[in-house]
Amino acid sequence: MASQPPAKGVFLSPLQVPTFSGRERSPSGASLGSSSTWSPTDTTHQNSSSPPSPSSPTSLTSPASPMSATLSPEMARNGDSSHLRVHSFSHRPSSSIDGETLRARSESFASSSGPTLRSRASSVDPSHLAKEFDDVPVSEALQSDARTAADFEVENNRFAFSPGQLNKMLNPKSLAAFYALGGLQGLERGLRTDLHAGLSIDECRLEGTVDFQQVTPPLSETENMVGGGKSTTTDEEHPIVTPEPLSTGDGQPYEDRVRVFNENRLPERKSTGFWKLLWMAYNDKIIILLTIAAIVSLSLGIYETVDGGTGVDWVEGVAICVAILIVTVVTAVNDWQKERQFAKLNKRKNDREVKVIRSGKSMMISIFDILVGDILHLEPGDAVPADGVLISGHGIKCDESSATGESDQMKKTDGHEVWQQIVEGTATRKLDPFLISGSKVLEGVGTYLVTSVGPYSSYGRIMMSLQTSNDPTPLQVKLARLADWIGYMGSAAAIILFFVLLFRFIAQLPDHPDVSPALKGQEFVDILIVAVTVIVVAIPEGLPLAVTLALAFATTRMVKENNLVRVLRACETMGNATVICSDKTGTLTQNKMTVVAGTWGAKHRFAQSADVHAETQVMTTVEAFQRFSPSARDLITKSVALNSTAFEEDREGQRDFVGSKTEVALLQMVRDHLGMDLTTERGSAEIVQLFPFDSDRKCMGVVYRVTGMGYRLLVKGASELMVDACTTQVSEMESTKDDISTEVFSASAKQNVMGLINQYARDSLRTIGFVYKDVDSWPPKDAKRHEDDPSSADFKSAFHGMTWLGVVGIQDPLRPEVPPAIEKCRMAGVQVKMVTGDNIATATAIAESCGIKTEGGLVMEGPKFRQLSDAEMDDVVPRLQVLARSSPEDKRILVERLKALGETVAVTGDGTNDGPALRTADVGFSMGIAGTEVAKEASSIILLDDNFRSIVTAISWGRAVNDAVAKFLQFQITVNITAVALTFVSAVYSSSNSSVLNAVQLLWVNLIMDTFAALALATDAPTEKILDRKPVPKSASLFTLTMWKMILGQAIYQLAVTFMLYFAGDRLLSAHLDPVDLTHRSKQLSTVVFNTFVWMQIFNEFNNRRLDNHFNIFEGMFRNYWFLGINAIMIGGQIMIVYVGGQAFGVTRLSGILWAVCIICALGCLPWAVVLRTLPDRHFGIVFNGVVGAMQFILRPVLKGFGAIASGVKSLLRPVGRFTRRIFSRGHRKGEDSSDVAMEIPSRAQAVDEEARTQVKVSRSESRDDHEASIPRTPVEAMSVPPILVTASP
C-alpha cells in the first residue's frame, strides 16, 4: 500500500539511508529527485514508469517505500557538526564505509535501475515566492549582468549551473538566488557532489550532463530562467528523464570541474620589465621633442666642432641627451619599484591547509586545491578560503568587515533551515547561510559547500578588478596639452626664424660673389643651428624632470607625516580632490566594538568622555569604576568574565581576546578599568551550571558558588528582556558601602531604564543588560529540573525575580580625530560621503555624529541606489551623503558616476570589499595597520597610522605639490619666453646670424637652473592657509590670470633690461669695458648680458614662491633649508661660470662695477613684482583675454590652412605607406615559408595561445549577444594563474 505524498513545504535533505541488504549508500541523483521538496513523485508517474527493483535507491526514497514516512526535516538536521544522519537507523558512519559501498562521487547520479522519470509538479506554495526575503523576485534572481554575461555561458557544461549563476548568491547575498538554485539539495545535485561524503578522490572526466530544470524548483508554469533559457512545462506534458553521468576514468583529476568552475587561483598578472618601463617612460611627447632637438643639435654640433675646431659645440646635444636619460631613468625606476611591490604581493605564498571531506573521509589539502563541490570544515579563527553555503553547524558567527564592510558579527544559519523557512513562508532578510571568502570565523564549528573559487569567488573578483590600468591624472593631461602647445609654438618660432634668416641669406648672395661655396654652406648651417637652438630654448627640458623630482620629494616628506604614496602622481591628484567616498568600518570608526556608554545601578551613568552628554551627572568610564565599592567591582567583573565564551590568546607578544566582538568589548572594558585577569577569575570560580546563549531567549547565563552566601545566577542579554525579569535593582554601589544595596524595581524606575535603553538605541548603540540573583541552593526549590540531569535547573523556570545591575551601550566607536578632519575637508571645499554595508540607522547615526550628514543631505540604501538609471544617479549623487547597505559594486558605481560628473574622487577604505572602488577612484586611501593587503594594493596612498586626519594632510601636500608645479611653470615659462625672444631678436639683428646667448649658456639656464629652481620651489611645506581655498577643477587651466600676469610682466621687464644692455650697453658701459681689445670688449658685454639674465632668474625665483597677490615672498623661507641650500648652489655655480667658465661658456671675468650693474638690474625684478601684484587681476584679464581672442581670430585661418596642407600631404603619402607595408609583408611571408617546419609549429602554437588568452579576456569583459553564441570559447583551464591570497580580518 503506497503512502501519501509528503505535504507541501516538507524538505527531505539528502540522507544516508541503508539499503534492504543492510548496507548504506548515499542516495543517487535519481533517487533524490523523487524525494525533492519541489517534485514529490506522483503515483501516476510511478505507475507509468517501469517498476523499480527492490535494491534500487529509487524504491528506498519513493513515497511507496516503507521508510519514507520516517524521514523528516528534523531528522535531517540532527546529528553531529560534520554529518547529518537519521539516528533512528543503525548504520556505519561515512568515514568507515568500505570500498564496495563507497562509490566515486562522479558516479553518484548513476542508478542501476536505468533512467527515472521525475515529476515537475510543484509542491511549493506559490504564495511563498512573494514573501519579502530578498530585494529581487525569485524569477529574476539568476539574471545575468551585462558585465558578467560570459560567466553564465559555459561550453559543454556537465553541471547544472554556471559560475555566474552560483555567484548570484553572494554578489550580493541573495536568498532568492539560493532558492532559485534549489537550495542545498539542488546545489548538491547540480554540482554533482554529496553533502556528506564530498567529492570523490577518483573523479576525473565526467560523462553525461545534469540539466538546470532537473535540480531546481519550478517558479511558474511558464518560467524563463537564465540557467535553462527555456520555457518549462509540467511533466504531465513533457516528462523529464534524469541522465546517468558517469566518470570515464580518463583525463586529469577533476578535469571537467576545473574546466567549468576553475581552481582556487587567480590569473597571473604579468609584471612589466625594467626595459619596457624605460621605453614607456620614454614615450612622452616632451621627451620625443627633446630627442629630435638633441639629434639635430648633436649632429650639427659635431659638424661644427670638426669644421671649426672649437671643441665645445657638441656639448649642447650631449647635455640634452643626458637630460632625457635622467628623466626616463627616474620615471622607470619609480615604476619598476611599484611593479616589484606588486610582484612581491603576488608571490607571497599564503598557502595553508584546510580540512575537507572527500570520499567520506576528512583530509587536509592546500587552499589552492579547493574545488567547487568540496565540503569544508569550519572552526573558530579560520579564514574562509572560498565562497559557499553552510551545510551544518552550531553557533557559527563570522567577521565579514574586511569583505563586506559590515562591522557586526554575522550569524550563520544552515542551508537546510533557510530552505525550510523559505518554503514555509517565514524567511526574512536576516537569514544568512552564505560564507564569503576573505571573512573570518569567530565562533562555532560546522561544514559548508563550496560554490565559487578563484576568479569567480568574492575575493577573486575583487582581486581581478584591481588588475586594470589607471586613468591619467589631471596634471598629466594638462602637461600633455602644454607639451603640444609648447611644441607648436617653439616649432613655429623656429620655422619663422629659419625662413627670415634664409631669405636674408639668399638676398645677400648677389652682394658677395667672391665668397666660396664652402663658406656659403657654412653660413647656411649656422642659420639651421640658430633655428634648432630656438626649439631647444622653447621646449622646457626641465619640465618632466622637475615634476617627477618635485613629486618624489613631496612623497618622501609625506612618509614622515604617515602618508605612504605608492603611486607617485597620486599626491598631486589628491590636492584637487573634490569628493571623498569613505568607508565607515575601520576608516571613520575603529573597527573595534567598544563600550562607549552605560548606566550601573540606578544612577551611575558613564560615557567615554564626560563632555559627550550635557548632563552633569554623566561620569567618564574611569571615574565611574573608581567610585564603586570592591563588592560592586567584583560583581561587575564576574558578570562579564564568567558569563562569556570569549577567551585569551597570545598574538604578537600581547594577550588579546578572541570571540564575538560584543564579548570582547565587555572583557576589554573590565580589564582596562577593573584590572581583570580572565584566567584568574575563571580559575578561581566554582561554576555550577552554564546557560549558553540562545537566539530565542536572547541571553546567556552562568551559576557559580559564592562563599558564605550560596549561589549566584548571572545573566546578560537583550536589555529589554532583562528589565522584564527584574523585581529589584541595585541602588548603591559607592565605595563607602561594603555591600551592594538593592531596592524595589518600581514601574517608574523601569520606565527610566527603558528610556535610557531607547536613548542608547537612538544613538545607534547595541545595548546589553546585566542582571543577577542570589539563591541559597541550586537548583532553586521553585525551579524545574532537567529530567536527564536533576542537578541542573531549567533556565526559564529560574529566570525571574532578578536584580537589575546595569546596562551598557556598545558601538564601533568613531575615531576622535574624524569630526575635525571632516570639518577641515568641508572648509577646503571637499565633500565627504560615507559608503558602508551597515544598516541605514547605524550609518545615519555615525554620519551625523562625525559631521558628514547635514541638513538636506540624502541617505540611501544600496539596493535602491543600484536600481537607478544613469540619469537618476546623476541627479541624486551630488546630494547623496550616506549610502548604506551597499555592496562593493555599489561603491564602485558611485565612484564612476562621480567621475563622470567631473569630480576628482578619493576613496578611503580598509577592507577587501573596498578594492574595486579604491582602484576606480582617482586616488585610493587604505589603512596601513588595519587594512587588508588587497586594499593596500588597490590604493594609491597608504595611511600608516590609520588616521582619517592624515587624509587632510594628504590634501595639503597634494595642493602643495600642485602649487610647486604651478610655481615652476610660472618660472619656466618666464625663462623660455624671455630666452626665445632674446635669441630670435639677437639672431635676426646679428650680421653673423648668431644669438647673444650661445647654446651652452642656454643649456645652463634651461636645464641646470630650471632643475634646481624646481626643487627649490617644491620644497615649501604646506601651510594651514592652503586649505582655505576651493579645489581646482579638472577643467581648469594650468595657468591662472595671476600667473599670466606675473609671467608676461616679468618677461617684459627682463627683455627690456637685456635688450637695453645688448643694444645700448656698449655706450652705457663704455667707461668700464676694455677700450683696447674689441674682441674682449664684445665678450665682456655679452657676459654682462648673460650674467644679468641669470641673476634675474634667481631673483624671480623668490617672486615665484607666491602664486597669489600677497607681497610677503619670504614667508617661511628661512625654515626651508632646501630652498636656501639650492639657491646657494645656483649662486655659487653662476659665480664659478663667470670666473672659470672661460672658453666652454664663452664668458670672461667681470670687474666689480660690472658685477654691480648685473646685480642691480636683476634686483629690479623684486619691486617690479610688487607693482604687478597691485594690478587687479580683473583689469588684466580684460586686456589679456582681448589680446588672446584677437590672436585666435587672426591665427585660426592660418591654422586651418596648415591643417589642409597637412591633410593633403598625408593623403599623398598614404599610398606610399600601403605599398611599403605590402612589400614588407611579402618579404615576411617569404621568410616564414623558407623557415623550418619544426620551427613553424611552435610559432603557430604560440599564436593560438595568444589568441586563446585574448579570447579569455574578451569573454570576461564583454557580454555576448545570442547570435555570437557560436563563437568558439576557450576553456577556463587555459588560464595560467597564481595562488589566490585569502586575507582575514585583522
Question: What's this, in brief?
Answer:
This protein has 1290 residues and is α+β, with helices and mostly antiparallel strands. Helix 16 packs antiparallel against helix 17 (517-538), helix 18 packs parallel to helix 36 (999-1018) and helix 38 (1078-1103) packs antiparallel against helix 39 (1121-1140).
Overview of the structural elements:
- Among the domains are: 272-344; 477-556 and 955-1175, Up-down Bundle (Calcium-transporting ATPase, transmembrane domain); 575-590 and 815-946, 3-Layer(aba) Sandwich (Rossmann fold), CATH 3.40.50; 594-811, 3-Layer(aba) Sandwich (Calcium-transporting ATPase, cytoplasmic domain N), CATH 3.40.1110.10; 1182-1214.
- It has 44 helices and 31 strands.
- The strands form six sheets. Strands 14, 15, 16, 19, 20, 21, 22, 23, 24 and 25 form a ten-stranded mixed sheet that branches. The protein has an eight-stranded mixed sheet with strand order 12-31-30-29-13-26-28-27, sandwiched between helices. Strands 5, 6, 7, 8, 9, 10 and 11 form a seven-stranded antiparallel sheet that branches.
- Helix 11 runs antiparallel to helix 17, helix 16 runs antiparallel to helix 17 (517-538) and helix 18 packs parallel to helix 36.
- The protein is elongated, with a radius of gyration of 40 Å.
- It starts with 16 loop residues before the first strand and ends in a 29-residue tail after the last helix.
Which architecture of the domain at 477-556 and 955-1175 does the CATH hierarchy give at level 2? Up-down Bundle
Terminal Cα span: 61 Å
- How many distinct beta strands? 31
Average per-residue pLDDT, rounded, comes to 74
Give unreliable regions as ranges.
Answer: 1-131, 220-245, 344-349, 610-616, 1230-1290
> Going by CATH, what is the homologous superfamily of the domain at 477-556 and 955-1175?
Calcium-transporting ATPase, transmembrane domain
Strand content bin = 5-15%
What value does the Rg take, in angstroms?
40 Å
Q: Quote the CATH topology of the domain at 477-556 and 955-1175.
A: Calcium-transporting ATPase, transmembrane domain
Percentage of residues in helical conformation: 40-55%
EC number: 7.2.2.10
Domain P-type ATPase A: 350-466
GO biological process, one term: intracellular calcium ion homeostasis
Pfam family, one: Cation_ATPase
